[in-house]
Design brief:
Elements lengths: L10 H4 L5 H8 L6 E9 L6 H13 L2 E3 L8 E5 L10 H12 L6 E4 L10 H13 L3 E4 L9 H31 L21 H15 L4 H10 L12 H9 L6 E3 L4 E3 L2 E3 L4 E4 L8 H13 L17 E3 L7 E10 L5 E8 L11 E3 H18 L11 H20 L5 H24 L9 H6 L3 H11 L3 E3 L14 E2 L6
Parallel strand pairs: 1-2, 1-3, 1-4, 4-5, 10-14
Antiparallel strand pairs: 6-9, 7-8, 11-12, 12-13, 14-15
Helix pairs in contact: 2-3, 6-13, 7-10, 11-15, 12-13
């Protein structure tokens, strides 16, 4: 694994000393030679050396010149980045930015193999082909083949994808074996409380963990502990304060007790160990004893977690805006003049322009009055719609899924040697073209109302669907100041879009 301190900062760190002569030949010399740039992508555990060697050999043999005025002295690279996952690749993004801006117009991009650009399906490279063609940039692999939108490139993409899956399968096997052996979890970042690779304990961080564990056992809440840590200036290695979720996750981690778990079910000696259960006992230093770990884990397990329901809870959230400043109005609670028998004030729900969110704070209206008005208004709007005797069912989504299954079935058939690679490529290209066409059709088709029956809308318990239905008629509605205390709500206090009047 490459640590952040070992990652290359300059091209001199990428080009081996033994190849400095070849690089100098490409940089210096006849300026009339075809200019080119290099793109390298190194996965975890790999190195740049073989990529540099092959690209230098090809560029020199083809009579090219390395253009050091772009990129990082003519080089774009990504360190420890996968080509088969949706992750950020700064080097690739920099390359594409320069291609789109025209900075690389007329130049060649040289890569060792096509899979350095991407190991994903051929459709991912379609955008790359379109952009480079428009920008008059050509791409070559180190064997001299031009990477363009053709059948060969499509086949190579399928093979690269298959190879990526094989590599992933092997890596999963290695990870399982490490877990069974009780070796520490592999990670690109240092585990809080340990030095890199779990070789030793970081005692300052370990003390923080032990104190937090003791406070939890004593009955303190995680939020209170986190607040105290913030006041004391205790922060994460990246300088950001600890959150309740961060501390809870750390204290639950069995690695601090030298216990090895795995991220999915694993079979050992014919017995399946469920995900998250202890697989083995490791040999790295322990910050907690096993009893201490199980004690704090049991306490934290009893704590009620926050609701995972992220659905809308307020009917007009995201619809109402302040007519004075344009800020979206927030739902809240406002004390009224009435008092309960115990002397406490009655609070009523309202929608208001919130100063803390950048609003003017001048507009506030009763939530009950607004919601009742919009429920009735939308009810009558649905009633006015023509009755559809036979509803048209949009099957576009089903057809898109059918075409995708067609691709998946073809890939499986190829792996089972039922079809050859040419047939697979043809099926894939045909299905992808149909999917693209169907998605275009889907965009222009009118979408049905979430609830198209007036009575069903009024009686629905699904606030999310009710809100989405209201938004189809009234996407944004402004709310004006009432004009004084005690003024009742009136529709004249609302500002509707022009097309909703």
């Amino acid at each position: 694994m490459t640590s952040s301190s070992q990652r290359p900062k300059r091209t001199e760190d990428i080009f081996p000393e033994a190849l400095s002569g070849d690089r100098a030949y490409l940089v210096d010399g006849d300026m009339s030679r075809q200019p080119c740039v290099f793109y390298f992508r190194k996965s975890i555990g790999d190195d740049f050396a073989t990529q540099v060697l092959r690209c230098l050999q090809y560029a020199r043999g083809a009579g090219l010149r390395l253009d050091t005025s772009v990129g990082i002295e003519g080089v774009y690279y990504d360190d420890d980045k996968s080509g088969s996952k949706d992750i950020e690749r700064p080097g690739y993004d920099h390359l594409m930015s320069d291609v789109m801006s025209g900075a690389l117009s007329g130049r060649f991009i040289i890569v060792r193999d096509q899979d350095r650009l991407s190991r994903r399906e051929s459709s991912v490279l379609e955008e790359y082909h379109v952009i480079t063609e428009l920008s008059k940039v050509r791409t070559f692999s180190s064997d001299g083949r031009e990477i363009k939108d053709d059948l060969t490139t499509g086949i190579m993409a399928v093979l690269a994808r298959s190879e990526a899956k094989i590599i992933g399968h092997r890596q999963r096997g290695r990870k399982e074996f490490r877990a069974i052996q009780g070796m520490p979890p592999a990670s690109r970042v240092k585990r809080i409380g340990y030095t890199r690779g779990y070789t030793a304990i970081d005692w300052e961080e370990a003390k923080m963990l032990r104190r937090a564990r003791a406070k939890v056992v004593a009955g303190r809440s995680l939020s209170g502990i986190v607040k105290e840590m913030k006041e004391q200036g205790i922060v994460k290695p990246n300088g950001k304060p600890y959150l309740v979720a961060d501390l809870g996750r750390l204290l639950r981690n069995p690695a601090y007790a030298g216990l090895r778990v795995f991220t999915r079910d694993i079979e050992i000696e014919g017995k399946v160990i469920p995900k998250g259960e202890v697989v083995a006992r490791g040999e790295w230093p322990r910050i907690f004893t096993e009893d201490e770990h199980y004690e704090v884990a049991a306490i934290l397990a009893k704590n009620k977690s926050f609701s995972a329901d992220h659905g809308p809870k307020y009917l007009l959230a995201g619809i109402l805006v302040c007519a004075e400043c344009g800020t979206r109005m927030s739902h809240g609670w406002k004390p009224s003049g009435k008092k309960r028998k115990d002397g406490s004030k009655v609070v009523i729900p309202n929608y208001h322009c919130q100063i803390s969110r950048g609003g003017c704070g001048r507009v506030s209206r009763s939530a009950r009055a607004l919601e009742s008005f919009f429920l009735d208004l939308t009810y009558r709007a649905i009633k006015r719609l023509p009755v559809v005797v036979e509803k048209v069912v949009d099957t576009t989504g089903d057809e898109i899924r059918r075409q995708q299954r067609k691709i998946d079935d073809a890939v499986k058939a190829f792996k089972d040697d039922a079809i050859d690679i040419v047939t697979l490529a043809d099926i894939r290209q045909d299905a992808q073209a149909k999917i693209a066409s169907l998605k275009k059709e889907q965009k222009v088709k009118p979408k049905p109302l979430p609830i198209d029956d007036a009575d069903a809308f009024l009686n629905s318990k699904d606030v999310g669907k009710q809100r989405d239905t209201i938004r189809r008629f009234f996407p944004v509605v402004g709310v004006k100041p009432a004009g004084g205390n005690g003024v009742r709500f009136h529709p004249d206090q609302l500002v509707f879009p022009e097309d909703a009047k």
